[in-house]
Amino acid sequence: MRDRDWAGGVYMAEFGSAAELGRAARAFQEKGYRMIETYSPIPVEGVVYRRSRLPKFVFAIGALGGLASYLIQWYANAYSYPLNIGGRPSHATTAFLIPTFEGTVLSAALAAFFGVFWILRLPQPWHPVFEIPDFDRASVDRYWLAIDARDPRGSRELTVNELREFSPLRVVALDPEPAA
Amino acid sequence: MSATVEPDTGVSAGAGWPLLTGQHDDASLTDHLLSPIWQTRPGWWWLFGLSCAGTLLFIGTITYTIARGIGVWGNNIPVAWAYAIVNFVWWVGIGHAGTFISAFLLLLNQRWRGSVNRIAEAMTIFALVNASLFPLLHLGRAWFFYWLIPYPATMGVWPNFKSSLPWDVAAVSTYFTVSLLFWYLGLVPDLASARDRAATLFRRRVYGLFALGWRGAGYQWARYRAAYTLLAALATPLVISVHSVVSLDFAIAQLPGWHSTIFPPYFVVGAIYSGLAMVIVLLLPMRRVFRLGDVITNAHLDAIAKLMLTMGLMLAYSYVIELFMAWYSGNQFERFTYLVDRPTGPYAVLYWVMTVLNVVTPQLFWVTRFRTSGPILFIASLGILAGMWIERFIIIVTSLNRDFLTSSWHFYAPSWVDWSILAGSVSLFAFLFLLFIRFVPSVAISEVKELSLGLGEGQVDLAPIGSVEAEHA
Known about the structure:
The structure holds two protein chains of two kinds.
Chain A: E1 10-15, H1 18-31, E2 36-39, H2 54-80, H3 93-119, E3 143-148, H4 156-164, E4 170-174
Antiparallel strand pairs in A: 1-3, 1-4, 2-3
Helix pairs in contact in A: 2-3
Chain B: E1 5-6, E2 10-11, H1 26-38, H2 42-68, H3 83-107, H4 117-138, H5 164-197, H6 201-211, H7 218-251, H8 263-289, H9 298-329, H10 332-344, H11 348-360, H12 368-371, H13 374-401, H14 416-439, H15 445-456
Antiparallel strand pairs in B: 1-2
Helix pairs in contact in B: 2-14, 3-4, 3-7, 3-8, 3-13, 4-5, 4-8, 4-14, 5-6, 5-7, 7-8, 8-9, 8-13, 9-10, 10-11, 11-13
């Protein structure tokens, strides 16, 4: 699930290996928890996410980019200012296909790059998990499992106890910021 | 089939050499791979000083060229395309191996690319920086380069898209942009590692800025992987298309020696070939200076050398087919260019040097010992790089200097400015690459960690290219 700001609080357990995290994440899903997230230095197979819509977006933008590339060439060379060079056709499909191909790839690549950062809401320099002491090892050699405090399956005591059953290195509870 | 773990030799991958050696856990592997950006080594300073001097030469000679015009080059009529286009084609070609390793091999699930892909991608970007300078300088009035872009100008005219020049602009600018995006996307998790390992607040902030707040959430990884694979799939056709488009600059002309349908595949093969040689030339000193022998092993050198051999054989095949087609066409101009002028004409010495360097050198790589010997690989790769530069010189200069009419024949010789610009561009490449090693995580840390995990748990079968697993469990 998305961990945009853990507005309702979160219970987190720290593990020393990807295998332990994967095992715990799968077990929590089987227990019926739905608001689960992991943090790890490498991708860990644990939580199952729905299929990304990014490929469809990239395809659409790529197709539009290709179309635009062709139209620009047609407008420039066949419509706005036809150039007769050696009697060759002004509307030269074969020649136009090369920049069309490049335009397709360029638009699709830009869509993939900016699309993924848009989906992930990055850049986001600050996030509540960064407040956990030594969380910086999550990009090096520590693997974290996070359960949203609002998950209907758990409660503060139950979730923390269930996390402890997997003998993590430590369990951390991040409480929501009190309303000012 | 299963990978085995041998505690003393690190992680073995079935037959062949291990992809990772040494005793490493996640933390020590991260620190080891980040060490080049925290502390430098004496070898780096020597190379950096040299490359700075060469880059100054580059800036100086470019300034001189722009101030005086391209008459300071050796170009003449009929040889209007000379060093500028030779250098352009050579540098674009070198870039291709980077994309080949990072995108093509990713889609083919060649996991060994993990420790060398970042270096290869950086090589692509810096090669393209150099490549794109040459056509701009060759325009003569470089400050009007934007006339190549279709924008609604008050002049009312547009670029002519039936010409190969706007094709080049489209191909090279797309290639550069996609390579840069792909490279940066791959860097984000490693920049986060650098942020989290930085010793000073300043470094933490700089790497933190570029890491964009990456926190390694499972959702982030899932989407990131999807985007990375998509970009790889988009970059893969560029490996084939960019040099094909460059080759069309020649193939759509009528000139004997250029007007040939074999040019697109022939150029692409030559491009990847020279780029792989450049990867070796960069990897070997880097591995030594920054002690990266644990992640860049004989398995990598062996795989790259085998690819070079393959490309070398395909290139040799192209040479033979060119000669055959010239003879078979029955056209006297084709026959003269390929069968008389190139092997016996004024540039015959270069032609034979090229043939030896490009066709004979890679034959060394049939021998296992040569594929993994640093000095032999390094010298052979320098030879191949020189050979590929000469190949472009032969294609461009011999075809132009003697075409259909003997009355228009004219000899070409480069001027000192041509030589200085070539040396300067190599220096600029080295300069950028040295800065890259020093400030950017140059090995894909998260990929190597994943590889090490997969090997350790026996989930990934990682026999290097071409090795046969004899064991059937």
